[in-house]
Amino acid sequence: MNREEIFKEISIKNDKKILLVVMDGLGDIPYYHGKTVLEIAHKPNLDALAGISELGSVIPVLPGVTPGSGPGHLSLFGYEPTKYEIGRGVLEALGLGIDLEPLDIAIRGNFCTVKEENGKLIVVDRRAGRIPTEENVELCKLLSSKIKCIEDVEVSFTPGMEHRFVIVLRGENLGGIVEDTDPQKEGLPPKDPIPVTEDAKKLTEILKKLTAEIREVLKSRKYANFVLLRGISRIPNIPSMEELFKLNPCAIAVYPMYKGLAKLVGMKVIDVNGETISHEVEKLKEVWNEFDFFYLHIKKTDSYGEDGNLSGKVKVIEEFDRVLPEILKLKPDVLVITCDHSTPAILKGHSWHPCPVLFYSPYVFPSGADSFTEKNCLRGTLKVTYSYELMGLMLAHSGKLIKFGA
What we know:
single chain, alpha/beta, Alkaline Phosphatase, subunit A, Alpha-Beta Plaits, 2 domains, six-stranded antiparallel β-sheet, about 30% helix, globular
């Protein structure tokens, strides 16, 4: 039997509640006077909880491999990320409520800023200064009015948050895999769409023509004057969390991509009336009696890490700490606080460093630490494991697994 077959056989339903808090990009490395953001932040509630919890570290994919948000989250939800490859375009599209057909191509787009040097485009800002969402909406309306199809392929543009948007291509023979056009760093030219598989020839040509037309529409603008394409993908076939683990799960998240990933594994996505952590926690309290697994996503730790904003990342941790007592009043049977990947502010991007984990239930071996930090997690009783192994522990600590074998 493989791992998934085992969980299908031994998982059971009960009324115990699991709460997984994902502070996106929380993990850090020591560089500000030898301290990480978790060491700098004033977080008395997290530190007190650490003293009665197991601490540990998790690796999202493989040692040394820097994960994207998709694989990082998929692993936390109990799936081996190397088995299921989910494109970011699909996640963004589902998160925005777009009804994708099986053969549709979904693409996550970034509005970006480019300049011309010696006849070439150079990326100045990969996120166009994180333009306001309202401006994004207007830009997508403009593109939708100018570009309705490329050859025989229908094209649609849907705004997301800030600089993010989604393109959906609908047509025949759009198979294969094409590389992203995002160079991942400023100061480099946007990459051309490059086919990875032989059957991607048509899709590659459509993308080349599409980016050229988008540039023509946006080129007079000062900031959001081009786009970068990421996660060019179709919907994969993946079993639900209910099918694998007998869970009735829900997701409380603000950003579309994370809603999309939650939908993909069968979570009920709960709409949040606001964008703050407090808004999310209020919604958590509202739906607490309706589900047995709760995924609460906090985005800004990652955003500030990518911006190199150490103080901003610290403030988000402190903001979460202030609402933690409200979460604890709900008395979750299992509470896990971790991240999908590390985003050290000094690196301004995702990294391969292990993710800190705080794991609380009545049945833990407390690490006895005086604070929730990466260093304490690396020497905690939970040790270092893979992210997808946390699901088995969450199920076990909540009595949702029966004995395996005679």
